[in-house]
Amino acid sequence: MIMSLPHFGMENSTRHSNAAAVERGRLSVLALVPALAFLLSCPTKASEDDTDLRRDSTVRAIEKVMPSVVNIATETIVEHHDFYEELFRQFYGTPLRREKAYSLGSGVIIDQDGYLLTNWHVISRANRIQVKLWDGREYEAEALVETEGSDVALLKIKAPPNQKFTAIKFAQDDDLLLGETVLALGNPFGLGGSVTKGILSSKNRRLATGKEPLNEQDWLETDAAINPGNSGGPLVNLRGELIGLNVAVAREAQGMGMGFSIPIKQVSVALSHFFTPELTDSLWFGARLRAGTGPLQVLEVNPGSPASKAGLCAGDELVQVDGQQVRGLIDANRLLCGLTNHEGRLVVKRSGESKSLSPLRLGSLEELVRQRLGCSLLVPTPPRAQRMGIQPGDGLLIDDVEKDGPADRAQLQRDYLLTNIDGQPARELRDVAQVLSEKKKGDPVQLALFVRQRLGLSHVQYLKGTVEVTVR
Fold it and tell me: Which domains does the chain have, with CATH numbers?
């Protein structure tokens, strides 16, 4: 008979074995506590494969755009004119009382070479412009072109050669969604880089015509806060693309929670006038190119201009300048102005086919004025200005009039002083070239003049008048 073994001894052995295992486990856990405590006390960083939930589309857009946003500080010298000060100045030579006025605004870099945009009203009449980047670097800047009608101004950062900056990307002109999330970046109240968030409340804005100034009817509307100091900063979409230039409107009747921005379409129109060799480098090209994204289209060509003589036509797409590929409006302007001896060849796409044009030779602003007005203009030297009883900067002197040209037909004569052209001061040739380069053949242009008239042997006076000249 087989007898079963008693289980008492086995149960006792198992009990001792389990107790030992528990004890070993307890000791193992106790040994891990210091290590766990150390790990928990250290900040952990998510691996690159993990997603930080905070870095959503808004944060990514801000990180992309912020390096291109600048704070702008201006200094303006204000002269005080009153009857007694003028009296003392005339009789005793007492200098006019001057004070410095300061203002703050924002801007956005649009090219790696340091070109930036802001509002005209931010820098108008400024004697000194200082810009501060997001990383704290500060530079002087100069105003290249500014237009009151569009309230857009083009500045250039004065930086060491070959220094590059982060530029913002432009959105397509009409790539706007009503209700889409938008971000306003800038320098509100001078507090430094700031971001507000809202939606695009209205986008159906008309285009201004002629010299009609822009106002709220033409601007984009958003509920993102745009306060004083935000003027000139960018309004961007969640792709980090520029869709507008912020405008701070300070009016009692303005509704709360309403911000305004100049649409990118209007900004692009202004840029197509700004980035011409005539304005940036005092060279005559004679064609206007389309700003923004997409192919670089030729919008118009002035008759008799270097561009026209080279065979460039409206509707062409500019592809190459002297063998170098064109990447956009600013790049095209840079290549044109950098031509050796101002000569080179253009390659365009016309009706879908590539075409090499005749050699291009850029002209001077003097040639531009003579071609379009039929006269020469001179900046009076200080000695000549003194002899004529005028001040340097009062205007430009008509020096030579071409027979049967537009100026001659308007009865303009030598030594007439041109002070204003189409409402814009004419202090230097570039001022006149800016207006004339935008005119088409047969367009009228208004010239404000002072006509020199001698009274007696020693006294000379200037009579003010306005003449309309037809541009050729």
Answer: 65-168 (2.40.10.10), 295-356 (2.30.42.10), 365-470 (2.30.42.10)
